[in-house]
Amino acid sequence: MTSSPMTAADIQAHLDASPFIAFLGLHCSELDAEAGTLAMTMKLRPELERAAGTGQFHGGAVASLIDTVGDFAVVMVVPGDVPTINFRVDYLRPSTGPHLLGTARVRRVGRTVGVIDIDVTDEAGRLTAVGRGCYGVPKV
Amino acid sequence: MTSSPMTAADIQAHLDASPFIAFLGLHCSELDAEAGTLAMTMKLRPELERAAGTGQFHGGAVASLIDTVGDFAVVMVVPGDVPTINFRVDYLRPSTGPHLLGTARVRRVGRTVGVIDIDVTDEAGRLTAVGRGCYGVPKV
Amino acid sequence: MTSSPMTAADIQAHLDASPFIAFLGLHCSELDAEAGTLAMTMKLRPELERAAGTGQFHGGAVASLIDTVGDFAVVMVVPGDVPTINFRVDYLRPSTGPHLLGTARVRRVGRTVGVIDIDVTDEAGRLTAVGRGCYGVPKV
Amino acid sequence: MTSSPMTAADIQAHLDASPFIAFLGLHCSELDAEAGTLAMTMKLRPELERAAGTGQFHGGAVASLIDTVGDFAVVMVVPGDVPTINFRVDYLRPSTGPHLLGTARVRRVGRTVGVIDIDVTDEAGRLTAVGRGCYGVPKV
After folding, report:
1. What does the pLDDT look like over C101-129, one tens digit per residue?
2. Which domains occur in chain B, in start order?
3. Nearest CB neighbour to A89, from listed B46, B58, B87
4. A contacts of C115 (beta carbons < 8 Å)
């Protein structure tokens, strides 16, 4: 893992430029290119609830957090346009607000694909979902 | 596959009651419990774009469509509360508007889990993404 | 989908050259490059049972069948060395002998990856497992 | 995670009783029920090679190792018969002998399903594949 010229602020600028990610309100909270980890938070809003008043995120919002933080973990290592090839989400518990934290960890970024693990935890630190994504690596 | 007492209108009422699904604007367009198929459409709106002006849905919106139509395909067969256990999404092409169609097909609904395949096509009928989900089956 | 110069006999020769696949005893039973489908059979032997005398294949043998027929479905379309990037298996029922049939269907083969669906059925035609694989596409 | 009455020797006895696992030659090398980790080794033999003389395991053997160690990680926590519901394998590098080590880590074992991560490393400690499995939990 080589250190990257990208900062959390750079990634935040990309997040804010995407209408769908802006709707989710993702915030890049941690970036450690040496360690291969990247984290984002997502704050509960009524529009993100699975059912009104539950205080629980819809699974689609959780999946979107997973896909996005996994994608930018590759961008952090190899800057450029990174398409998601596929990903898997396992839901372990209801994802309750007020915030979720999605933490991506690079398992391997090769020449053509990158494989990233993403853990989602709630404010109490409980693991609510896990993701694993495969992404296309930009040509350097 | 036994026929179900649920109609497309019943499922639409569930969709509209979820704030996140209402944001996505999913519309239940086809239900055939005998055949084990269920379809929903999603209309492009600026908030669903991956990047402004591209006319392409963000992958998180596509994943949310897949998860939702897969989930309700189980509900169609065994009415009740159906948690997503896990799902996988493979993106095959950019998902371009103005509409996407997500079509779920029941592969098997057993006593504890249901496995559903979901194809996503654009208005030209091109396959843009495929999903496969595993869902908990309500106790009858 | 363009037609391929590979025949079922060509693929069988590749299968027989792999010690692990030869152990499994896979037989290429159908190839239709135009339709994008490829099928292989696997015969139950005592060494492939999950528990002695059950008449049921071990899940690892089923997964190996899925991976192999999916891989050669890409080879059928774009001849060359095709690495598996990742795959998913869902087990729907016990996989009972005397034979299993694994049928691969090309969902899309692009420039860098191919996505293949694989259905596994027993002699009674019951679906016992489904696979979905993502494979690297050889440079033409 | 509660401590389990199962020992590595108990699990080894189960492995040896399965014809297919006995063919693979899996050896239970580490069990820590408190930590939720379980490890098995697989030794390269000519019959497990993807191509003769490569010194590399076939991906189906690697997938079988992943499925098996993940399954027994659930057994370790909740003894009984544990069916694999589904699993995913991502191949990161060729899996070279003379031994592979598959290490399972419990992410969550709930009332109905358990989710397990499995890392596969070669003798040099390089990560060659990662698995994630979902298993049925025996009724206590």
Report:
1. 999 999 999 999 999 999 999 999 999 99
2. 8-136 (3.10.129.10)
3. B87
4. 86
